[in-house]
Amino acid sequence: MHVLTISANFIRVKLFTMKKSTFMYGVPILYFSLFFASCSGQGEKFHDASEELMDKPPQTNEENDPKYLADMENYRKKVMLDIEENNHRIIELKNIASTQSKEIRLRSLGILDQLERQNKSMEMKMIDYTGDGIENWRSFKAEFSSDMKTLSNSLKTLKSSKSFN
Known about the structure:
The chain is mainly alpha-helical. It folds into two domains: about 5-55; about 65-165. It has four helices and two strands, in the order E-E-H-H-H-H. The protein has a two-stranded antiparallel sheet with strand order 1-2. Strand 1 and strand 2 (about 10-15) form a beta hairpin. Helix 2 packs antiparallel against helix 3 (about 100-130) and helix 3 packs antiparallel against helix 4. The longest helix has about 35 residues, at about 20-55.
């Protein structure tokens, strides 16, 4: 048996060299035990993931569902018609405002510019929307419908106000 001496910070540590047979069998056993220990962790992860999949309800391929796609396409067409109608109202109201007194004209044109930007923003929001599933579509559609109704009502109210009559 050979003795190896290492000195570090005034401390001497003696390490004994192992026999060749211990080294030859010890390293592979250590290697395989670490390998199998790491594999068991992966198995647990796989088992947890498979439980999560089993807990979820089966999903249909909703992005290719004909009813969903048809609803989305019909709604887009309807909204684009509403946006075009709002654009015509805004042009009509701007023409009426141009004949009013300077004070009313400036106030009305400021409001109309704001409504025109909002209408354009709604149009871009609809164009940019990509289907993210039925639930997201329903929520988007409800919020968008509410915003469009508010915009249309603002234009109708403005048109019926005393400034434009």
